[in-house]
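Troubleshooting: if your tokenizer reports a length mismatch, compare your output against this known-good record of 691 residues.
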Amino acid sequence: MQGWVGEYAWGLVALSFAVAVSASYASLITLGRIRAAQTDVDRRWWLLGGALALGIGIWSMHFIGMLAYQLPIPVGYDPWITALSCVMAIVASAYALWLVTRGPLTTRRLIGGALVIGAGVAAMHSVGMLAMRMQPALEYHRGWLLAALGVAVVAAGVALAIADRIREHAPRAWLHYTMAALAMGSAIAGAHYTAMAAVRFADGSVCSAALPSGMSPDMLATLVAALTAALLGTAITVSALDRVLHARTGRLSASLREANAQLTHLSQHDALTGLPNRRLLVAQMNAMIERAQYARTAFAVIYIDLDAFKGINDSFGHAVGDMLLARVGRLLRAMPQAGGITARLGGDEFVLATPVHGSAQAVETAEAVLRQLRDALALEGHADVRVTASIGVALYPDDGAVADTLLAQADAAMYHSKQSGRNLVSVYRAGMADDAQAQVQLAYELRRALETDGLALHYQPQIDGFRGDWVGVEALLRWHHPQLGAIAPVRFVAVAERMGLIVDLGQWVLETACRQYATWREAGLRVPTISVNISPVQFRGDHFVAQVEDAMRRHAMPRHALTLEITESMAMQEPDRASELLERLARSGARISIDDFGTGYSSLAYLAQLPAHELKIDRRFVGRIEDSPRDRVIVQSIILLGGQLGLDIVAEGVESAGQAQMLVDMGCSRLQGYHFARPAPAAMLTPPSAP
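Known-good structure output:
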């Protein structure tokens, strides 16, 4: 074909290719953003952004290429046709991006996306050429046109295939994006310049768009430059910022998942020994029972209680006691017991559940445990002090068919060992049920103490770690038996729960604590709030809210003067009813504290919906923050979580200045523990005077 042949300004040719590559890079990055979008709205916005970047990039590349092609006649461009060509490029780009992000990039979708991009480039080129309104009309070489379309389709397919295999956080992802952008840019530029080779400008042609109604090349150049710079710069910057934010969010989510997994693990394991706790033990024993029923086999439940452990704690301190318990845990875990379970129930009580062939083997195993403990439990620096244990044994299926029954029978056998002189192994037998009578007697004496003011409340201050002021006190129940002496709360509270006294006991504590608060207030002493522990049975009582309201009204307690401490597990049992009860209590003016936080299994999403005012970090975490990086991370996470939810954070069990300073540095201002004050009767405390 003969006709005018233009010349290229190679600087503009290079610029057109750079624009095509930049537009491709911006649009390909949005592919990852489209796939990562969490909502349909976000997905549509990213799709629009990618379509604008690619479509305007194709359009800009074409017209920069046209500006690079210099003809020996004045040229111009029809503004409406030029705008139409831009819209066509954007629509084709949007459809192609939508097609390849609907799901996995199958071969069918890859070919479809490449064909749409190739056809869009070709259509935009053809309409863009029409914007010149040449007279006579342009002529095309069919072979070159087909070649241009083929170049666009193949290069676009290669680009999409590369982009689909890119993982955003993989090493050198930017290099893969660059390779894909070069391929896509080659598709756009290659299609344009191949198509230009197919065009014939007839001799004597006139560009009708060069008239005053058309856009001059200078005007077009300004428009192209402005649109390209604004859109591509914005697209690349926004995508980069979003990727950084997404990465940070991903790291935060991973940290929260890890912390939640640690909390879940700790809710099922003892923090000191790492052994399963009662909840996990019961679940595992139930699984053992199912296997034993199927295989018609037996197993033994060996209940271990250290003798005189309280005396060791009192004489040598809690640090020595904890070291001793940890050593017992390691020793029991190391004992061979195929298919068995080792757990710590709390305090100085451990359980070993292990398959046996009969009672003789069960006794042999228990005696082996006793020998190992006797030989290993010598206190360092105190060779004359020997620690022994009392052991009780129950057998499945002879002594029970469910986990709780087996544990109760083994516990009864263990108490028989203690009553028989300690450092012994006893196998459960029916006569040991007489021990239950001792429980009944203790419950009777507890009721008498309740009716005759034989119980007492001791109070432990909560201190502002920054100013040293009192921010509250916790009321703690104590019982000094006339013959048995001080009885540990864990013992008589368990009896009260088992014998149906816990509601009366809880009501006595609530009434006594409110009366003491009123006494302090009338004396001109300032105690911001008084905390009372609530038992699960008391919390589930039908009249609990009314009892709280009545006590606060009779003692003229202002709002938030009374803090009710409930555990995570209490809040998670029947969560809808628990939430409704807490709402009613909060409306009544009581503060709600989530006690022993981190040892239960509440979800963070549910916690955020509770009308709580306070989180109490469990003493097990606090006691180990100086030595355990993991516990420090958990404590810091709880403090940050509470701060985000607008909750006060109380750390209980603070026993050293180092722990206190570390907690204050983490942002926990409310501290409670022996480092500040031991629980004491009200008469021995001197709260600050009211201002």
